Amino acid sequence: MLDILIQSRRNQKAALKLMRKLLKKQGYAPDAVVTDKLPSYGAALRELGMQGKHVTGGRSNNRAENSHLPVRQRERRMQRFKSAGSAQRFLSIHAAIYNTFSIQRHLISRRTLRKFRSEAMNMWQDVVAIA
C-alpha cells in the first residue's frame, strides 16, 4: 500500500491531488499506474502527462483493492471519526504499521518468516523507543 488520502469526492481534482502526493513521495515516475476504471484517474494522469502509463484492465487492480481490505475493516470498527483529518492521521499511521508487519506467509518459508518478523519487531521497538 503506497498511501491513503481521504477526500469527500472522487472527481478529477481529488484524483490529481492523490496522484501528485504519491508521485512526490516516490520521487520518480513509475513504469505503470494501476487504478480502477474511475474516469477521474485517467483525466488526472492525462493532465500529468502519464496517460500512456495508465493500466486499468484485467485483474491488474486486484492487489490494490485487496490491500484496502484491512483498512476498511479498521474503518468499520473505528467509525465516527470526528473529522476527516483525524481519520487521515489514523489511516496513514495504520498503513505504515500494517506494511511493516504484514508478510505474505504463503510466499516464504517458515525460517524466512521468523527472520522477517524479528526484523520488523526490532524496527518497531527502535521506533517506539525514540518516541
How would you describe this protein?
This protein has 131 residues and is mainly α. It has 2 domains: 1-67, no CATH class; 81-131, no CATH class. Helices cover 60% and strands 3% of the residues. The chain contains 6 helices and 2 strands; from the N terminus they run H-E-H-E-H-H-H-H. The chain has helices at residues 12-26, 39-47, 62-67, 69-77, 84-101, 110-130, and strands spanning 33-34, 54-55. Strands 1-2 form a two-stranded parallel ribbon. Helix 2 links the parallel strand 1 and strand 2 (54-55). It is globular. The relative contact order is 0.11. The model has no long low-confidence stretch (mean pLDDT 78).
Secondary-structure map:
Layout lengths: L11 H15 L6 E2 L4 H9 L6 E2 L6 H6 L1 H9 L6 H18 L8 H21 L1
Comma- or semicolon-separated keywords:
60% helix, 2 domains, 131 residues, mainly alpha, 2 strands
| Unreliable sequence segments | none
The ordered H/E elements are: HEHEHHHH
Summed up, the domain count is: 2
Distance between the termini: 24 Å
Overall outline: globular
Number of strands: 2
> Hey, roughly how much beta strand do the residues contain?
under 5%
Radius of gyration using CA atoms only? 17 Å
Q: Provide a count of the helices.
A: 6
User: Biggest sheet: strands, sense, closure?
Assistant: 2 strands, parallel
Strand order of the largest sheet: 1-2
Helix content: 55-70%
**Nearest-integer average pLDDT:** 78
Content-based structural category: mainly alpha
